[in-house]
Amino acid sequence: MNGVHDLGGMQGFGPVRPEPESEEPVFHEEWEGRVYAMVRLIGGLALWNLDMVRHARESLPPADYIAYSYYEIWFAALRKQLVESGLVTEDELRTGRASSAVSGAILERVMRAEQVRAKPFMTTSYRRPAPGPARFVPGDRVRARNRHPRGHTREPRYVRGHVGTIDAHYGSQVFPDLSADGVVEGCHLYCVRFAARALWGESANVNSAVYVDLWEDYLEAAP
Amino acid sequence: MNGVHDLGGMQGFGPVRPEPESEEPVFHEEWEGRVYAMVRLIGGLALWNLDMVRHARESLPPADYIAYSYYEIWFAALRKQLVESGLVTEDELRTGRASSAVSGAILERVMRAEQVRAKPFMTTSYRRPAPGPARFVPGDRVRARNRHPRGHTREPRYVRGHVGTIDAHYGSQVFPDLSADGVVEGCHLYCVRFAARALWGESANVNSAVYVDLWEDYLEAAP
Amino acid sequence: MTKDHQDDTAPPSDIELSVKALESLLVEKGLVDQEAVDALLELHENEIGPSNGRRVVARAWADGGFKRWLLDDPNGAIASMGYVGSQGDQVRVLENTDDVHNLVVCTLCSCYPWPLLGLPPVWYKSAPYRAQAVADPRGVMRQFGSEIGDNREVRVWDSTSEMRYLVLPQRPPGAEGWCEEELRDLVTRNSMIGVEEAQRPATTQTP
Amino acid sequence: MTKDHQDDTAPPSDIELSVKALESLLVEKGLVDQEAVDALLELHENEIGPSNGRRVVARAWADGGFKRWLLDDPNGAIASMGYVGSQGDQVRVLENTDDVHNLVVCTLCSCYPWPLLGLPPVWYKSAPYRAQAVADPRGVMRQFGSEIGDNREVRVWDSTSEMRYLVLPQRPPGAEGWCEEELRDLVTRNSMIGVEEAQRPATTQTP
Questions:
Q1: By CB neighbour count within 10 A (0-12 exposed, 13-18 middle, 19+ buried), where does C16 fall?
Q2: Of the four listed, B15, B24, B180, D110, which is most buried by Cβ atoms within 10 Å?
Q3: Number of other CB atoms surrounding residue C97 within 10 Å
Q4: pLDDT the model gives residue D6
């Protein structure tokens, strides 16, 4: 979707404000850590995948997405997904008191402290069998298709319609546009190099390039 | 600038919510009318032009621009322009009490009720002499240049890089990109027709087109 | 955005207070004439509005010669009726036909033919309309209850310059023999923006 | 976005209360194990962070054979040091040279090589960085005090897939003969994202 989350090339957001690296805490507020942990642990129940999480965040109301801090976005999307999945009812969210039971099959998957310590990160692989042979090889000129899907996509607006060169073929990965709807299929994934001037016009620095990972369905051969 | 004001083609803002035409008041709140009137009357002092006003609005912080209602945007930009032009000081805005005098030359231009009644709208013309002969004629194929200026522009992002056809030549109008910086120069203005599929890809309705007014500096000949 | 008028007994909101404070300041500094504010608002409440546009459209429906003039030389034809001014000094009139439907938007801000239609409605200035109109005009029109068949071309006009666009809707059937004054009642503001067709006689008061 | 820690005596904010309420609810429903929350946070506060990335870079600087392995088969080389996992199952290492400088961003969200660098800093997840990095990387780097000459190509890597990018900064001059453990102190997190070069010995504690 052409949402406000698709920030590449946007202007007017002001300067980057880096904190000195040595002074930056892991979490700036205690609640941010709790949100992070809830998202990770509920994510471990495998009731939704990463693309669904991303889409839940990017489809928050645009004014919220822009005004919220990072973990506020996570929190708002988590609440939305909990209700939409039926794990939590609107009523429970409002009252803070449990009034519905969770199925045993789900409770069996609840992550425990020892599992977290043994494997602090999910080890999900996104590789999937390819639907067919790869259409492109490194060096090929390709155009990022001018698509404007309403749903989730990982083809940023700023590359659409522009011509680049295949830098690498990364094999076949889960195709995010379908994955966000729960359909998990492999699609060839490429890293595509775009000259900065191809993307941003004549005023861009001539000695810059942007490398973007793009699935085969996002690409067409360019002359 | 690639700002959040450049809304053409964005998604996720929800449905249009029309009010029944017969029930819609001119202003929904009294303060909205007062803001409108202040903007019009202060605008009549001719201390800034329309492109400067537009740029003041579109360069509000993105979170404000999206969260604000229409006249809240007008009000915020008016306050900004009043201070930046020196007409009002920060201190006066804060206290609400006048502490600096306005020059007589400006006071002479203050709009009076009888002037407003005689001419309720500004009659500024935006026509200006052309810098040279027109490069394009109706029927010519043109490409909207892939430009990303940091300042004000009236070339929306959604047309950039796409090919259309000159529908009409409107003569020479003030070029907004320079006008927003106070440089008032004419530039040939065209109406350009883009097939919906050229702009939005294969999923667009085949029997739709978008007509956009574009200045010659935004265009290049297309094969 | 479209809150109802506040209860008269409710305390004023922050924005109300800020606006009042700025107005007092500008009046105190002599930059704004209180009477001019009132005059301008009075004009908008009582005189300015889509009625000018309605008269132009009704005349074009009633008078084929005027219609040709309006399409060929809109500024001249409109000036002949006494309407000129702000952002209306260059107007282009877009004729709806059996083959073509026109729709106007301003994706970058809220450009609109004020002298002909008054101030734009809230939805016209809102993000949803500005975002969707250029990409999915048929979808937008459906939200107004209007259905445009795929065999009719939809032309969306994005008001990016100081040119202002007015849609000339199709004269509806069932009003044969109506005079210009009677026809005006069929011309809605929305039909001159292009999100709807003109009203049909059955849905309005019989003249 | 980067507010200071609240004063312990200040009343909790709305978001604090909402987060606490949701956590209690999820614990009550059995969906979240309180001990697992604490364990995860404890790991992040004390064990997870950019030190894994630092070790990988320092080893590549100290050992030419490892460096070649890291560039040719990053997943194998990194796994040999014991680091694997979330969003780190496919890593590509980008070598900075005299001719090329690399910079990593995720314009669409906040993808980042967690197992090597920990959670991303606030600025990496912020709109200004995500907006500017792909369009004006040199301008972004200037905001970190880094100047990249026009004769050096800047490559920006937008993490749009599950591939994760790690920049291998150039080994700074002045650290000749340093061992791997000593070199680690010169590897900043920011240099592995690419917004800065690695530290020079003069600007860090002498090992």
A1: middle
A2: B180
A3: 11
A4: 45
The catalytic position among C111, C146, C159, C191 is C111
Q: What is the pLDDT of residues A176-187, one digit of tens each?
A: 999 999 999 999
Report the gap between the CA of B223 and the closest CA in chain C (Å). Answer: 24
Q: In this complex, do B31 and C19 lie within 8 Å of one another by their Cβ atoms? A: yes
Supply C110's token pair. 């809220």
Cβ neighbours of D45 in A, within 8 Å: 26
Ramachandran category for residue B96: left, alpha or beta (phi over 0 → left; psi -120 to 50 → alpha): left
SS3 sequence of chain B: CCCCCCCCCCCCCCCCCCCCHHHCCCCCCHHHHHHHHHHHHHHCCCCCCHHHHHHHHHCCCHHHHHHCCHHHHHHHHHHHHHHHCCCCCHHHHHHCCCCCCCCHHHHCCCCCHHHHHHCCCCCCCCECCCCCCCCCCCCCEEEECCCCCCCCCCCCHHHCCCEEEEEEEEEEEECHHHHCCCCCCEEEEEEEEEEHHHHHCCCCCCCEEEEEEEEHHHEEECC
pLDDT at position D82 over 90: no
Size of interface A-B (CB pairs under 8 A): 84
> Terminal CA-to-CA distance of chain B, rounded, Å?
28
> In sequence order, what are the residues at sequence separation of 6 or more whose Cβ sits closer than 8 angstroms to the Cβ of residue A95?
none
**Residue at B150: amino acid letter:** R
**B187: closest chain C residue by CA:** C161
Contacts of A148 in chain B (CB under 8 A): 9, 11, 200-201, 203
Collapsed DSSP state (helix, strand, coil) of residue A110: coil
Cβ–Cβ of B170/C161 closer than 8 Å?
Answer: yes
Please name the residue of chain B whose CA is at the shortest distance from the CA of residue C28.
B98
Token couple for B154: 């009236």
Kindly report, residue by residue over C70-101, the tens digit of the pLDDT: 999 999 999 999 886 555 568 999 999 999 99
pLDDT at D86 over 70: no
Amino acid at D109: C
Q: Is C111 a catalytic residue?
A: yes
Q: Which of C18, C24, C109, C179 is catalytic?
A: C109
> CA C3, CA B63: separation in Å to the nearest integer?
21
From A93, A112, A211, residue closest to D156, measured CB to CB: A211
Q: Do chains D and C touch (3 or more CB pairs under 8 A)?
A: no
Beta strand A163-174 with A186-195 is antiparallel
Residue A221 makes CB contacts below 8 A (sequence gap 6+) with: A135, A136, A140, A141, A142, A143
Coil, helix or strand at residue C154? strand
Q: Which secondary-structure segment (H or E) carries A190? A: strand A186-195
Q: What is the pLDDT of residue A2?
A: 98
- Report CB contact under 8 Å: D36, A115: yes
D7-40 pLDDT per residue, tens: 456 777 899 999 999 999 999 999 999 999 999 9
Residue ranges for chain A with pLDDT beneath 70: none
Of A11, A150, A203, the CB nearest to B2: A11
Query: Is residue C191 among the annotated active site residues?
Result: no
Tokens of A159: 């590359």
Nearest by CB to residue B1, choosing from A12, A59, A148, is: A12
